[in-house]
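INTERNAL AUDIT FORM
Audit reference: QA-55
Scope: verify that the stored structure record matches its stored sequence.
Auditor: D.O.
Record contents follow.
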Amino acid sequence: MDGIAKTPAICLRLVQPVEGLEPAHPLGGTTTTVGRHPSNDISIPVESVSRFHARIEQQGDQVLVVDLNSSNGTYVDGTRIEKGYLKPGHTVIFGNVEFRCESTEPEAEVVEDQFLKTPVRFVEAENKQSRLITEAEAGKRETAPLGAFIEVPTDRDTLAKAYRKLAALYRLSDILHAAPEEQQLLESFMDLIFEVVPADRGVILMRDDPDGGLEIRVSRSREPSDESGPIALSGTIIDRCMQERVAVLSQDATTDERFKAAQSVLLHDIRSTIVVPLVSESAILGVLHLDTRECVHAFTDDDLSFVTSLADDLALFLDHRRISAENQRNQEMAAVGAVITDLAHSIKNVLLLAEGGIQLMDRLIEEGDLERIGQSWQLTQKGLGRISTMVKEMLDYSRAVKVKKTKSNLNDVVRETCQSFQTEFENKGIALNLHLDPKLENAWLDVKGLERSLVNVLVNAREAINHDHGEITVATQMRPSRDLVLSIEDNGVGIPVAKLARIFFPLFSTKGGQGTGLGLSMIKKWVTAIGGTVNVHSTEGKGTRFVITLPREATGVGEDDTAS
């Protein structure tokens, strides 16, 4: 009806999957809260997202997103905002998690100013001699000083253009600071280029390794593709840029002596072209191609310097990120490889014992000695059970930690877990004491991970007690800071000082051949994943105390169930 504002039907859809987060989130009601805390309407379990990050409000026929002073910011279409409006086609980033705004109406409105993805055709130079005469006039790829973009110009239009470039430099810094996924970063980078440089079409090509081929990652056009046609990339220009590591500006490629022999230039009427290799110190990561058919608004030397400066910053950031990711993968693979090697050796030894037991049983069967057959079978079963345990722990260790939090009470989790050990401990003469803080409040806890860690420590405590007056004490506490503390203390043999520093290392075990050395490593891995800490205090001959601390930021203790 006239006079009544229509509530927009918008859905936020994840661009890249996030473990533990639904891919689509329709915006219903008047207010939607976003943050890492589980009480939010959209709870994002990622550390770059603040606990109460942003609020989305329905205001008549508009949708407003408000940043709640988050640490890493909220971005709409690559721009950091305090407040901003969302429309179908926009992207919104909380921390480094990107969503795309989609209309849920049958006839979704097309955003007019959205740049269009355009098909690309890679055309090799048909005239091979043209490769030899392709020269780059731009010289060495040196980043232009900031002052080159903000010198006082002589006319208003040039002044506006200079300050648009300055603003773009700051925006690129914000985009890199948000550290989005690589594809999202490349898309945002192209958006930035199109806002400042008079390009009609643009393409970013990347390669995954120094010897790999180029792959098209982003293609963009200001016009619908059926009007401008596919973007034709000149193999002549791109090859020369990559070989010489230089940026190229051709103000009229159809008459430029360097490229006029290339049919890929002539056939597609490319008037002005900028091609910049994305170069790091170690490798060429890719190429940025921009072109325009406008003679009046052709690219200038200033455009080349500006685009080259941005491309250098992008390449440096991507190279550092790739090196960091590769180093992390190498460390993880080395750790897993060491674990596999050690376990394979242990399994081989157990299998040899099991094979010996089987051979012994074969002989005892021939002799009809049933009593000794039973004894041998028990030893064989024990060995096979140990292999099963080692393989299971290896699989658990190699998997990524999955955290699923529910509103729970730490005392209840401890009480129920310890109950399952009560009979076993009584039979072994071990007293199990619970000292549970009655003031403990409900908290957002990963109950499964907590139970698994508590069981692991209790088993270690049980095996550390080798006398008849064993005692294990499990205690909970809420500190004045509202951090939750879980401690498990035993009066067993303790851990030597020389071994204490390595207690959480993968494969390190204080039990000799009785342990895999992965149990405490998995506790450390889980506690770190939820933002907590685990410490161990031990005196040889007197006992050991494990302390797991869950900070308030990770549990939400004392906070209302609804975001303010």
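Auditor finding: record pair retrieved intact. Residues 1-6, 106-116, 124-151, 263-268 have pLDDT under 50 and may be disordered.
Action required: none
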